[in-house]
Each structure stands twice: as structure tokens, then as C-alpha cells.
Amino acid sequence: MLINYLKYCYRQAVISLSRNRWLALVSASMIAVSLAILGGFLLAAVNANQAMQNIQSNLEIVVFLEEGAEISTLERKIEQLEGIVHCTFVDKHTGLQEFGRSLGDEALLAELAGEHNPLPDIFRVRAREGELVPLLAGQIEQFPGVEAVDYGRELVQTITGISRWLYWISVCISALLAVGAIFLVGTTIRLSVVIRQEEIGIMKYLGASDWFIRLPFLLEGLTIGWTGTLAAVVALGLAYYQFAALLLEKSPLFFLQPVTSPGMLAAIFGGLLLLGTAMGGLGSVFSIRRFLRV
Amino acid sequence: MIDLFSVSKVYKSGGPPAISCVNLHVEQGEFIFLVGPSGAGKTTLIKLISREELPTSGRILFLNNDTAAYKPPELLRHRRLMGMVFQDFRLLKSKTIYENVALALEVTGRPPQEIKAKVPAVLARVGLAGKEEAFPSELSGGEQQRAGIARAIVRDPLLILADEPTGNVDPETARGLMELFEEINRGGTTVIIATHAWDLVERMKKRVIALDKGRIIKDERQGSFNHAH
After folding, report:
1. What's the CATH number where A103 sits?
2. Which residue of A has its CA nearest to B108?
3. How many CB atoms lie within 10 A of CB A141?
4. Residues A95, A192: one domain?
5. Does domain B28-54+72-221 have CATH number 3.40.50.1370?
6. Cβ neighbours of residue B71 closer than 8 Å, sequence gap 6 or more
7. Which residues of A155-184 are buried (b: 16+ CB within 10 A; e: fewer)?
């Protein structure tokens, strides 16, 4: 009985979709566009997040020491902190030599050597994870004998800010597009309901259950949603594949590496497919509820 | 089978009742004509029995169940036990005659084999053999009504409710349709027909319930009824 019923629902959904094929196509396209934009932003956000992780994990905390600071005590305290990979002491003379080498100015180096060296002793500290850097820097800054710490705070803050904006922009645009898509699917289903109103009335007389009447419309909405999203996922997948291949081959910066984790990409694309299909179903549920009252 | 106890129906609060204090008992296998002028309450009575409308006061029992107390599954069962025939046929124009009749079985989830066997048989019974693939627009009024009757009887209902079934056909076709209803009734199905066609009513010698301004003014049994069920 259930199989016969499902066959009937499927047949009705196919007939209805072919009758309203243009409107169904517009609705599916709208879902495809909104989901492609949402997916694009999601991929951008995930990649930006990975770039930030790459940058942060390469960040070094430079700890500037006060004159006469207890070097060995401080070194022990830093190394005891959770998440520290290694901690290297660089005295002011070595520091000056490094600085001179980076400048390539031997004369300046000679002039600043000895008692005129303005540089402080420092520790170079590496964290296990990029995310720990700001926290560890804050803790080290509190230790006695530490004058200041630096870890590229501004760069991290800029990237975090960009990621956050990217996320909110994508949420807003996608929400607007999703509402539009749900509305369009609703219109398509409403049209089907109006076209089939006489049939629905007769079915009620014949003793059709509410779900018998509703399910073909729900199936129609889900099909529209699924088709639109599938188109979006395929297009987005192909575009991302090209982009990732290009970036892997010719990335200009060390931290610009694309996300290629199969688990992460499957979650994004699978999630989009579920979301788009659900949007189609949601549009039809609203329409049927408002217009059938069966 | 059907019992109405002091049933009244008012559509508009403060307006005149469409049905007023009606008491009625219908036995299984009866053939009943509901007659009366337009606005007498015939269609309202049909709608109350089919449970399309609920009474404003009074009780309606169908197979000893109060129709006002139905829960959704019971309402479905109620509708599935009866077949409806309409003046305007209410066939779906986009479906063939076969598909129109098959719909009555599809909504109850009957298997395709049963549908394939039953629909041609019932179409042959109402005189529409060979018209399976025709669309309603390709048939005459009488043939369309026969298709409507086929859809009503394909599930072997206990009761047929027909509202002016001969209203849109010529007198000769109307006689043919009435003979078909009589043949269905001989099989034990209760038939209730609301009609204006006095000549047919008088000729067929069945129970006649006359309504006027929502009240039963005459309830006369002119012939014997069938007890086959």
C-alpha cells in the first residue's frame, strides 16, 4: 500500500513539475544561485581560517627583557607554560649581529657594538598552535623582567577581522537569497495547488487523507530544492577544484594553501545539498499549509 | 444505517435554517428520492449525510456512529464508505475516464493489479466499455455522468449520494441513468438522490422524501426496498 502510494505521489510530482517547468526552473535556479553564493563564501571563510592558522602557527613571540632580568629563571618559567614548543635566548650582541646582517650595513653595526648597543636581550618563543599565541604572549608579558612582547598582533587581528566580516556578509547575503528562494519555491507550489484545486476537492470527497494530498507537493518542492542545489554544488565543486589546483601549484605566499581535506569539503558540499533540499521542502510546506487547509 | 434526530442547519447566524428539525431513518438497501423546490434543503441534507457540513443542532448517526464526533481517521472511513455523484459530474478534465475512475482506488492505496482489473469492469457495467482512454470533453453529458457513477461505485460503497445527477442531461439519458442507479441499488447499495425530475420519481415507485423550506413535508414509500446487504 505504501509503495503504491509513493508511486502515485512520485507520478503526481513529475506531472506537476512538467506542467510548471519554467517556474520550477526559475525556482531551482534561484536556489542554485543562493546556495552557490553561500557555498562560495563558506569556502572562502574556511580557506581564510586556514590561512590564519598557517600564519599563526609560524608566528614567533619575541619577548623583550629589561636590563638585568633573571634570564635562567625567566627561561624556566616560559618553558613551563602549557603549549610552548621551544624558547631560545638571544642576547643583545647576537641580536645586533642578526639585525646588522638583515640591514647589510657593517658600518652601523660597528658603531652600535659594545656599550652603545641599544637592543635588549630577547627570548624567541614558539607555540604549539597558532591560536595559543595571543594567550601565551599575554601570560609572558606579566612575568617580572619582561619589558614587552611582540607577535604580529596587528596582522592576526586584521586577518581575524576579515574572516569575521566575510562570515557575516555571507550569512546576510545567503539569508536574503534563501528567503527569496523559499518564496519562489512557495510560489511554484502555490501555482500547482491552484491548478490542482479541483482535483484536491474531488480527492477529499473520495476520502483521500491529508498526507495523500500533501505529499506530492512536498515531493515537488524537495525535487526543486535538490535539483537547484545539486547544480550549485557541481558548479562550485568544479570551480573550487580549479582554484585549489592553481593555488597548490603557484601560491605566492606560504600561508595561502587551499583547504583540501576531503572530510571538510564533504561536510560543506553535503551540508549545502541538505540545506537546499530542505529549502525546497520548506517552501512547499508553507504553501500547502496556507492554501490547502486540508 | 442513517439516523437523523432533530437535525437543523443554519449557515448564517440569525438567517433562515437550511434544514429545520429533521428526523429521518434510512435502512440499508433503500432507494430514496429527495425532492422539493430550489432552496428546500435537499443539497444541505446530502452534505450533512456526507459530513461535508456539520449540523447546527441535532445528531446524525451513520452505522450508529455520531458523525459530529468523528476523528480524522473516522471521517476518512466515512467518506470511503460512500460514493458521491454530482450534477456537474466533477470529472478531472486533464485525466482520461480510466484515470478518473482509478483515482477513487488510488486515494485508498489499492494495488495497481486491483485497479487494472476493477476499473474496466466497472466502466463496462455503466456502459462505457471502450471509452477508457477518452477524456471527459470527448464524451456526451450522459456518458460523463456514467463515468461519475463508475467512480462512485468502483469501491463498492454502502451508500451512493447523488445531487441532481440528471440535471445536465436530456430526459432520455436521465431515464438511462436512473435505471443504472436502480441496477446499483439491486446489488444492495443504498441510494439517495436529490432531484427535480418529478416524472422519473413518479415512474420509479421508490421512497420519496419531499422537503420545503428545510422541513420534511412528505415521506412516502411507493415501492419495496432491497435487503440484499
Report:
1. 3.30.70.3040
2. A208
3. 15
4. no
5. no
6. none
7. ebeebeeebeebbeebeeebeebbeebbeb
Secondary structure (3-state) at B217: strand
Residue A52 has pLDDT above 80, yes or no: no
C-alpha closest to that of A239 among A269, A264, A277: A269
C-alpha dihedral, A123 to A124 to A128 to A131, nearest 10°? 100
Residue of B71, B106, B151 to mutate, interface with A, max A Cβ within 10 Å? B106
Residue where a domain stops, chosen among A109, A135, A151: A151
Domain count, chain A: 2
Q: How far apart are the C-alpha atoms of A212 and A217, rounded to whole Å?
A: 10
Torsion of CA B196, B200, B201, B205, to 10 degrees: 180
Predicted-complex ipTM score: 0.80
Residue of chain B minimizing CA distance to A2: B109
Same domain, A79 and A211: no
Task: Please tell me which of the candidates B52, B92, B109 has its beta carbon nearest to residue A5.
Answer: B109
C-alpha cell at A215: 505529499
Which cell is A198 given?
479541483
Residues A13 and A66 in one domain: no
CB A189 within 8 A of CB B93: no
A47 and A175 assigned to the same domain: yes
**Chain B residues touching A209 at Cβ < 8 A:** 72, 76, 107
Partner-chain residue, chosen from B72, B107, B111, that has the shortest CB–CB distance to A212: B107
Nearest to A37 by CA among A160, A161, A180: A180
Q: pLDDT means per 10 residues in chain B (229 residues)?
A: 96 89 95 93 95 94 95 90 92 90 89 92 93 94 94 94 91 90 94 90 91 93 54
**Domain hosting residue A133, numbered range:** 60-151
